[in-house]
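job 3f2a | input accepted
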Amino acid sequence: MALAPFTRLPGTLGLLAFTLFTASVRAEPAEPGPVAPSRVRFRMDAGFLAVLEHDIQQGEPGTTFDYRDEGGQDVLFAVQRFSLGVELAERHRVTFLYQPLELRTRARMQRDVLIDGVTYSAGQDLVLSYGFPFYRAGYEYAAWQDARTRFGIGGALQIRNATIEFITTTGEDLVSERDVGLVPLLHVSFWRRLGGPWWTELDADGIYAPVKYLNGNDNGVEGALLDANARVGLDVGEHVAPFLNLRYLGGGAEGSSDGNPADYNANWLQFFVVSLGIELR
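job 3f2a | predicted structure (281 res):
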């Protein structure tokens, strides 16, 4: 049975709703125009995350464990995200993003499961923690920009900060995997004024790294990441814009860091996120 993931969401959404209502009452509609240079933009959004697919194997031999169907991740999880963008000049922008992300569930094993050399028997109750917060810094150059359109390309550097744990509800047989590293990403974005105060934006950060060093390791572990967003926003004033964001987050890694089968790891996931947010500028 999964732990309730929405305990912190109502307060966050309430704060967003109050901020949006206050801004909409006080602000005048903004005129269409280009993105202003030398401007600081702060964004925050909150919503829910649905696990589409999430499999993991730790150790060889080892069980391919389905977090969604066997580990209680078949519910919705509350998520938040915070980002800061700074327009250094007309075509140059740097961004900083932070997103806490921890999926914590309880589940009863329906079969014997071998994780990193530890066997959890059918009928045992486990606590499972999957932590993967995002820390990302990026740069974007506007390859094309006019009064209604901006097309940007660039790159980003993300800190991989993963903590994966299995433990029985009685506190026995802990398996804990921790991993920190730097992951370079490619970045692309498209912003378009739809008419009046409405606008839309598409952006994606990602990489596929079948070779060493590119995936943040000094080995041949295969890794991939795609973080893609589609949002629609409304300028309710010169400095405030609420938006709806749809997000796909997928990727993972597979391989052994030292060629030892006991150290083999495979972890692939696909998440879908729906959130409401606000941009302050």
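job 3f2a | Residues 9-280 form a domain with the Lipocalin fold (CATH 2.40.128).
job 3f2a | closed
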